[in-house]
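Page 47, continued from p. 46.
Same chain as before, 253 aa.
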Amino acid sequence: MLKKRIIPIELLYGDRLLKSVNFSNFRDVGHPVKSSQVYSNQDADELIILNIDRQNRSVVSLSSYVKQIATECFVPLSVGGGISTVEDARLLFDSGADKLVINSLLVHNPTIVRRIIDLYGSQSVVASVDFVRNSHDAVAIVSNCGTNPVHRLLEDFLVELEHIGIGEIMLQSISRDGTMQGYDIAMLNSIRSKTNLPIIIAGGAGDFVHLLDAFNSGADAVACGSLFNFGDNNPLRAKAYLRNYDVQLKRIK
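Result:
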């Protein structure tokens, strides 16, 4: 059985890390290399590092930080933001990335994603499925940092992802991002019932109970931002709490 994972998520903008609410209202939360070192020392299972600068989508500056982080941290790195070519993927992998987190390219040019998977394997690509809920509680999938609607039914989009050969899904609620009110468990249940792919859930974690709820609903990993940025919480304490409820986690290093 796959062990459950605790994954801090870091949003890179220029040379700083930011934390968002609903993909906007940003707050500075630290330096990417120093913060990553702290998470590595606190027994994070992986790190997700996303370039959210909507003006600078080049992966060159992102790769520079990935290279620095990879030399200082001893956890797998999942990296995304602005990936548009096989060459972009190669640069990030050569810089130390273990996985790529891909969103917009899945919609605009899935053929390139297939080529990346052919070269590096299914386990190397995480599909970022970002979504919002409207006032009637209907779900809409979006891309391009939450700015463009993806006109596909959820079920159809999941089938497309599986056909491409995606190894994992990151399910991210923009509506709950930064709210610390809990993950969108209803959406997690819906996705879980339609795919056997591993699922990372993101957007909304505010306490350790929210992590437990996600794991009990079938998440394979939880991505956390505000939970670790605001308050005296960290991956070590999260794991100590979850082990009290017999959640099967990766071993402490």
